[in-house]
């Protein structure tokens, strides 16, 4: 049976669990409550639940849990073409495991150093530290950007150029509050609007045009 925590969380979860047990065994009540509180928060943050992946071949799946905060058409330097950008803000209570929006191959990967503005700030999409991953399936191209936030200073990405992924497969993680941008073809039929809450790997944020 799969343990429902991201593997990157164990470096925090295990020491806090041991510290909590130590405090309670020594009857350090205040320290015990604090350690247990931190342990529960960190374990909750690094949870990695299974998701039911939609099977529609034209579906574009949300790469992250969170709230849709911006939808704009723009030309991104990484793409060199005009795409529709959907920005998802993740607070510290969201699942932070990232998932692949379409089945395909990683055509390009780039790490971009930058600032650590608050992730709800729309300037974060351009100015913050981030990774950009171009997923390609035939002529279909979709980019996902993992963007660090004010607190999140650690982006983890498993994807490398040439890797193949299935729809909804895990490809990375961002620690402690962040932002994820997804760039979809402008002729896609969007299934979300600003203010909607989405779940990575299960929410359909749009559909590719039939010609795609």
How would you describe this structure to a colleague?
By secondary structure, this protein is an alpha+beta fold. It has two domains: 7-45; 59-207, Glucose Permease (Domain IIA), CATH 2.70.70. Helix content is 17%, strand content 36%. It contains three helices and 14 strands. The strands form three sheets. An eight-stranded antiparallel β-sheet has the order 9-5-6-7-11-3-2-13, with no helix packed on it. A three-stranded antiparallel β-sheet has the order 1-14-12, with no helix packed on it. Helix 1 (10-25) runs antiparallel to helix 2. The longest helix has 17 residues, at 29-45. The radius of gyration is 18 Å and the shape is elongated. The mean pLDDT is 89.
What keyword list fits this structure?
8-stranded antiparallel sheet, 3 helices, alpha+beta, 17% helix, Glucose Permease (Domain IIA), 3-stranded antiparallel sheet, 36% strand, 212 residues
DSSP E strands, number: 14
Rg, rounded, reads 18 Å
Order of helices and strands: HHEEEEEHEEEEEEEEE
**If you average the pLDDT, what whole number results?**
89
Compute the number of structural domains.
2
Enumerate the strands of the largest sheet in spatial order, edge to edge or round the barrel: 9-5-6-7-11-3-2-13
- Classify the beta-strand content into a percent band: 35-45%
Estimated helix fraction? 10-25%
- What's the helix count? 3
- In terms of per-residue confidence, which ranges show pLDDT below 50 for 5 or more consecutive residues? none
CATH architecture of the largest domain: Distorted Sandwich
Overall, the morphology is elongated
The CATH class of the largest domain, by name, is Mainly Beta
Biggest sheet record: 8 strands, antiparallel
Structural class by helix and strand composition: alpha+beta
